Every structure is written in structure tokens, then in C-alpha cells.
Amino acid sequence: MRSHYKQGLNRKQQLLFPPSLDEYVGENNSVRAIESYVEILDLRELEFKNLSKKSNDGQPAYHPKLLLRISN
User: Fold this and answer.
1) Exposure letters 11-21 (e unless 16+ CB within 10 A, then b)
2) Phi-psi region of 47 (alpha: psi -120 to 50; beta: other; left: phi over 0)
3) CA diameter of the chain
4) What is the average pLDDT across 55-61?
5) Minimal CA–CA distance to 38: which of 4, 59, 67, 12?
6) Following DSSP, what letter does each residue of the chain receive, concatenated?
7) Residues 39, 31: contact at Cβ < 8 Å?
8) Is the pTM of this model over 0.90?
9) In 3D, which of 53, 2, 44, 57 has the Cα closest to residue 65?
10) For 17-57, how does the pLDDT look when each residue is reduced to its tens digit (9 = 90+)?
């Protein structure tokens, strides 16, 4: 007889990837410096404006700090 309940995950299964992508990046990697630098920026002083439209069309815009981090 087939069960109507969802099956739980096998708790003994090994993970293929670490639980966090942060674990892939070393503590002395230059990415850490870029992230720290972007975090201290004052985006209002640099005249970043909210370019996202307030509508129900599509997904919301990405935060400018996120875009600055990945553009390097």
C-alpha cells in the first residue's frame, strides 16, 4: 500500500557540497576584502538610487551592494 505522506530525507546520506558556499572561500581570499569594502560604502552618498519599480511585474531588483560584489 502506498503511503500518502512525504518521505523524509535519509539522515545518513553524505552531502555532496558543504552546507554553505562561504566554506569554499578561504579566509585570506581577496573576495573577503571586496566584500568588506562594499559593506562600508555609503550608497546614498555615491548617489545610488532605488531603481526598482513598485509593481507586481516580475521579480524585485537585486540590491546594489550585491551587484557591486559580483561585478569584480
Assistant:
1) eeeeeeeeeee
2) left
3) 65
4) 70
5) 67
6) ---SSPPPP-TTPPPSS-S-GGGGS-TT-HHHHHHHHHHH--TTTTT-------SSSSPPPPPHHHHHHHT-
7) no
8) no
9) 44
10) 767 878 888 889 998 999 999 999 998 888 887 655 566 67
CA distance 48 to 54: 17
Residue 18 near residue 26, CB atoms below 8 Å: no
Copy the grid coordinates of residue 21.
558556499
Domain ranges of the chain: 26-48+61-72
Q: What would the mean pLDDT of 68-72 be, rounded to a whole number?
A: 77
Report which residue type is found at 45. E
Q: Are 51 and 45 in contact (CB under 8 A)?
A: no
